[in-house]
Specification:
The chain has about 270 residues and is mainly alpha-helical. The chain is built from eleven helices and no strands.
């Protein structure tokens, strides 16, 4: 098994155990049977099939198109390689995530991620099975690996997944740190740089009027800095009272997983 896959598994299980100790891993507020099916199917499809397939397909396409370029960027300084991954993977994912909340057909592919009315590691990889196929950042990552950034990609993705899993968990690791006054400037730097439970739960909030929710912003995955830079950030150091999708009726597990094969009148953007 690849080292990054082992790391992601360990981090995922670690936060799942913390949620379990809090009594909230298996029994989420407003959980439905549809939620369980979406997570049981959507998560393994992404991790076992979709993501590895995209990285491999992108690598092979690069090999066909640019056979002489294999490994040619491996000589770049480490910082330059990290910068390339941050721009072509994380920043591209920010823009694609932002587009997913702006265009109807993309939101229909992404809506499953927001249909669960709770925060949890369970929703980290919860999406329509076709959603990740459309994600440019994964295709760019495969191309960068072909160009020689594979050794740097491994620790990069390990850090990124740690931040993403921690931000989705209902274990608010940032809350006790906010209470320590002398840490406030440091926490300001942290929350302006990476996704935290506070800023990312705001993106999953259900009611815009609650003063915390910002489902038309806070799109960052690894770096929340993109939201700060591009004007979509909302930082309150609070957590929305309710999670979910506002002003849209619920849809079936089949539609969450496989729109447009399954569709309903609820298939419109929010």
């Amino acid at each position: 098994m690849r080292p990054e896959a082992i790391w992601i598994f360990v981090v995922f299980v670690g936060f799942a155990l913390l949620e379990l100790l809090r009594g909230s891993f298996f029994h989420k507020k407003n959980q439905t049977s549809a939620d369980i099916w979406v997570e049981l199917i959507g998560t393994p499809v992404l991790l076992v099939i979709t993501q590895p397939l995209i990285l491999l397909a992108s690598y092979l396409l690069m090999a066909q198109a640019f056979p002489q370029a294999a490994g040619s960027w491996a000589v770049l300084p480490i910082l330059a390689q990290i910068a390339l991954l941050i721009v072509f993977d994380d920043m591209m994912q920010y823009w694609w995530h932002r587009a997913s909340h702006s265009f109807t057909w993309l939101y229909n592919l992404h809506r499953a991620h927001h249909s669960g009315e709770y925060m949890s590691v369970r929703i980290v990889y919860r999406n329509n099975v076709f959603y990740y196929l459309t994600m440019p950042s994964l295709w760019f990552s495969g191309a960068l690996i072909y160009l020689g950034l594979g050794p740097v990609f491994v620790p990069y993705v390990m850090v990124k997944q740690l931040v993403i899993i921690a931000a989705h968990s209902d274990v608010p690791w940032d809350r006790p740190l906010y209470r320590i006054k002398w840490l406030s400037p440091i926490m300001w730097l942290v929350e302006c740089t990476i996704s935290t439970p506070s800023t990312h739960s705001a993106h999953h909030g259900k009611h815009k009027a609650d003063g915390v929710t910002n489902y038309k912003g806070n799109f960052g995955n690894l770096l929340f800095f993109w939201d700060v830079l591009f004007g979509t950030a909302k930082i309150t150091r609070k957590y929305p009272p309710e999670i979910g999708v506002e002003n849209l009726p619920p849809i079936t597990a089949a539609e969450q997983l496989a729109w447009p094969i399954f569709r309903s009148e609820a298939s419109r953007v929010t």
